[in-house]
Design goal:
This protein is an alpha+beta fold and 110 residues long. It has one domain: Arc Repressor Mutant, subunit A. It is built from 5 helices and 3 strands. Strands 1-3-2 form a 3-stranded antiparallel sheet. Helix 1 crosses helix 5. The longest helix has 31 residues. The radius of gyration is 22 Å and the shape is elongated.
Length: 110
């Protein structure tokens, strides 16, 4: 249920904004904070939540830490959401088949 932690983390609009900032590549906390209307310590806290949820990772580069998207964590979230699409498409297919199977005499066709 890794997706549940990710969904909870993404419920916060600031965390979603932080995640969006990382779409274009790795960033340091200061770089992210400079682009958002929140303090650097607040960005650090949001990054910690996103990291704990498996959505971002960090690595040391000199004296600072660079944060980037975690493809594995995002894949888990994508798989969860795709499950809804799979179910919806299967239901649509069943409905379409039942409509055509019930129309054996060709009525309603041009």
């Amino acid at each position: 249920m890794a997706y549940a932690t990710a969904i909870t983390a993404l419920a916060d609009p600031t965390r979603r904004a932080v995640l969006e900032e990382l779409r274009s590549g790795p960033r340091a906390v200061g770089e992210i904070a400079a682009r958002l209307p929140v303090s650097r310590p607040a960005v650090s806290q949001h990054l910690r939540v996103l990291k704990d949820a498996g959505l971002v990772r960090d690595r040391a580069q000199g004296t600072r830490r660079l944060y980037s998207l975690n493809g594995d964590g995002l894949a888990d979230l994508r798989d969860y959401v795709n499950g809804f699409w799979d179910e919806a498409l299967a239901a649509y297919e069943r409905a379409a088949r039942s409509d055509t199977e019930g129309d054996d005499d060709g009525a309603g066709r041009e």
